From TrEMBL, chain A:
This is Transcription factor PRE6. It comes from Abeliophyllum distichum. InterPro entries: bHLH_dom, HLH_DNA-bd_sf, PRE. GO terms for cellular component: nucleus. It comes from the Eukaryota.
From TrEMBL, chain B:
Coiled coil: none annotated. It holds the Pfam family IBH1_N. PANTHER family: TRANSCRIPTION FACTOR IBH1 (PTHR33124:SF40), TRANSCRIPTION FACTOR IBH1-LIKE 1 (PTHR33124). It comes from Abeliophyllum distichum. Residues 11-77 form the IBH1-like N-terminal domain. This is Transcription factor IBH1. The keyword Transcription regulation applies. Keywords: Transcription, Transcription regulation.
Amino acid sequence: MSSRRSRSRQSGVSRITEDQIADLVSKLQQLIPEIRNRRSDKVSASKVLQETCNYIRNLHREVDDLSDRLSQLLETTDSESAQAAIIRELTNVNLELRCLYFLDCYSLGFGQYIIYSPT
Amino acid sequence: MTMQKFPSNVNSVKSRFTNRFLQALKKMNKNKPASPSIRETYRRYHFIRVASYASMASVIRPRRAWSYATLWKIRNRALMKRSSRARSLTRNPRKDIGFEQVSDLRKLVPGGEEMKICRLLNETIHYIKCLEAQVEIMRNIVDHCST
């Protein structure tokens, strides 16, 4: 009898988990541009996971490529323009951050609690 | 423990990432050697790459398993360089429900080795969004610097 009880409890737990998994897989489906553009509802979960892996690998490769280009850009002896661009960008971002900080302080409701550290 | 939605504030994350990443680049530029060698080029590339991942992970901070795992890995790698290289212990791989792609995903998402599948999918969604933001900002910076 205890085995029957444990079995029913197990099936109950696994049912909830399967629903959660299906929900998360559908959310993933919306993120991956490969699948999102195809607009077919019947995409198997394994396909979604496969495309997710490919997409993450692509993103990693893009980060590598962009790091490479950045290192070359900053390496040239006359990279004064690049350095100036960075400093300009930094000041812009600082201003933006300060504005965002004030905006968020006013716009956030009571339910949210986001901790900022304005630099 | 409530699963936090992303983005609770996309622009804030993007701005904070940009800030930290650019600070790291500025710091790197200060110690410029006189003659650039191939080794130096590789070191810069490696530094920039690690700085981009570290900046994003530190903006998210230990709120997410993947960011915690990324920061932990980076710090451990820095520590391990000083001491002798210790072999990583191979733990028992987690048994998965069905798909073999899940094991691939576990290797791609930092910290995904030992999670339950539900948490792994949740982390993946957040991780992909942050990665996209990281790539977008890096591309902006490269475009900025090239002009």
